[in-house]
Amino acid sequence: YQAMFKNPLVSPDILGVSGGAAFGAALAILTLNHFYFIEIFAFVFGTIAVYIAFFLAKSKQDLPVLNLVISGIIVGSFFTALLGIIKYLADPNNQLPQIVFWLMGSFANVSFSAWGAFIIIGICVVFLYLLRWQLNIAAFGDDEAKSLGVNIINLRKIIILLSTLTTAASVAVVGIIGWVGLIIPHISRLISGSDNRNVMPTSIFVGGIFMVIIDDLARSLISGEIPVGILTSLLGAPFFAWLYKKQKRL
């Protein structure tokens, strides 16, 4: 997404997938309250949210980046409002705490159902890996990409589809864990440079190592388990501030 949108501040929820998934999970907790349905609802509504953003952004045969960003903000805000309604209707003694805990992200309730998400993520990552060289061309801009023979509209559609399925599957299993999709690519660029052929595999390994460490900290810092999303935010915000100050000095 950062390469496709040509913006280092872009994260995986730019098109509203996290907002849609959050609403789906909260709706499942309010109505059915079974972890299978929570994961299914989160995945389905996360995908629906991005489809709506894509539909709003599409203009004739074009798919401008700015339209995608604006549509993502609209859709994300809409599903956030729906999530607020679900919270208001939820039982404050049982359902509401469960919704809030899910929104903070955790590996505590991950079960064998995660294999379904693993398959989806694995397939999408393979295709994204094969397309990584085209992301380098897309980063130059639409006109340059077209002059080099890359169909930028089709590429954008494929990247959005694969990234949406990957993000929705992840969020469906573990909830919303912020900052990871934003800071891990930056760390990877510090290690391997800006070439997406290197950034993508580096991000996979660095992201995996980072989340294992964070999960260990979440389980060991106190007697209970801290939601992983809290720790990633506590570490992600200072790191991004440091990176911002460092880039200003360059």
Q: What is the structure about, briefly put?
A:
By secondary structure, this protein is mainly α. It has helices at 17-31, 35-57, 65-89, 95-104, 114-130, 132-138, 142-147, 152-174, 180-192, 196-220, 228-249. The chain folds into 2 domains: 1-176, ABC transporter involved in vitamin B12 uptake, BtuC (Orthogonal Bundle); 179-250, no CATH class.
Describe the structure.
The protein has 250 residues and is an all-alpha fold. The protein folds into two domains: 1-176, ABC transporter involved in vitamin B12 uptake, BtuC; 179-250, no CATH class. The chain contains eleven helices and no strands. It has helices spanning 17-31, 35-57, 65-89, 95-104, 114-130, 132-138, 142-147, 152-174, 180-192, 196-220, 228-249. The chain is globular. The chain starts with 16 loop residues before the first helix and ends with a helix.
Strand-helix topology:
Blueprint: H1 17-31, H2 35-57, H3 65-89, H4 95-104, H5 114-130, H6 132-138, H7 142-147, H8 152-174, H9 180-192, H10 196-220, H11 228-249
Helix pairs in contact: 1-2, 1-3, 1-4, 1-8, 2-3, 2-8, 5-8, 9-10
